[in-house]
């Protein structure tokens, strides 16, 4: 045996991540009312195909944000609409599901969007800032933190009238207690 590290074949890392997402979805889907019999009697693609997955990033702050989602303190997020447009994503819709992964790509939470609103940056309220549970939870710190971030990403496109997508969500899985029976 040698100390030389062998790189995995092309595509294997993505396949491992896909397997982790699929296994997580299999465990979590009962919490949204998708039953085990779907595999036998047929289900819709929404029942079988895992929802999109994403992360807050891969640093310590991202792990902290995920921990706040898992313990129930963080129930909202915000993105500049221009950021979504840059990467070709649409606004989320009420009822959308998503899987949040940690910095290593391990699925950790299933979320359901409960509210979506687009407002100018300077119209974001204290209630939303508190629901994001970042920094000290105040509107002042929310504005400072997000303005700095969006100026870095958007440069001159940032202004107080910048459209911001405010999303509220609920943690569907994991939860305490058994998966509800749906079959």
What does this structure look like?
With 183 residues, this protein is of the alpha+beta class. It has a single domain, classed as Sulfate adenylyltransferase (Roll). The chain is globular and about 45 Å long. It starts with 11 loop residues before the first helix and ends in a 10-residue tail after the last strand. This is ASCH domain-containing protein.
First and last CA, distance: 51 Å
Low-pLDDT residue spans: 1-13, 178-183
Helix-residue proportion: 25-40%
How many independent structural domains? 1
Order of helices and strands: HHHEHEHEEHHE
What would a concise description of this structure say?
By secondary structure, the chain is α+β, with helices and mostly antiparallel strands. The protein is built from 7 helices and 5 strands, in the order H-H-H-E-H-E-H-E-E-H-H-E. It has one domain (12-173): Sulfate adenylyltransferase (Roll).
Give descriptors for this structure.
five-stranded mixed beta sheet; about 35% helix; ASCH_domain; DUF984; Sulfate adenylyltransferase; PUA-like_sf; 7 helices; disordered C terminus; ASCH domain-containing protein; about 180 residues; about 20% strand; alpha+beta
Sequence-ordered SSE layout with sheet pairings:
Blueprint: H1 12-28, H2 38-41, H3 45-48, E1 53-54, H4 60-70, E2 76-80, H5 81-86, E3 97-101, E4 107-120, H6 126-132, H7 139-154, E5 163-173
Parallel strand pairs: 1-3
Antiparallel strand pairs: 2-5, 3-4, 4-5
Helix pairs in contact: 6-7
Domain ASCH: 54-173
Protein name: ASCH domain-containing protein
Organism: Cellulomonas humilata
């Amino acid at each position: 045996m040698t100390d030389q590290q062998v790189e995995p074949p092309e595509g294997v890392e993505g396949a491992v991540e896909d397997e982790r997402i699929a296994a997580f979805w299999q465990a979590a889907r009962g919490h949204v009312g998708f039953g085990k019999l779907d595999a036998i009697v047929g289900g819709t693609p929404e029942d079988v195909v895992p929802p999109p997955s994403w992360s807050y990033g891969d640093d310590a702050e991202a792990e902290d944000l995920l921990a706040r989602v898992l313990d129930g303190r963080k129930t909202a997020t915000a993105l500049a609409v221009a950021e979504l447009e840059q990467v070709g994503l649409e606004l989320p819709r009420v009822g959308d599901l998503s899987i949040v992964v940690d910095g290593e790509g391990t699925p950790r939470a299933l979320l359901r969007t409960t509210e979506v609103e687009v407002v100018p940056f300077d119209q974001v309220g204290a209630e939303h800032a508190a629901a994001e549970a970042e920094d000290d939870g105040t509107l002042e710190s929310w504005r400072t933190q997000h303005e700095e971030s969006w100026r870095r990403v958007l440069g001159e496109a940032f202004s107080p009238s910048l459209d911001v997508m405010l999303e509220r969500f609920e943690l569907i899985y994991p939860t305490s207690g058994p998966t509800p029976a749906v079959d």
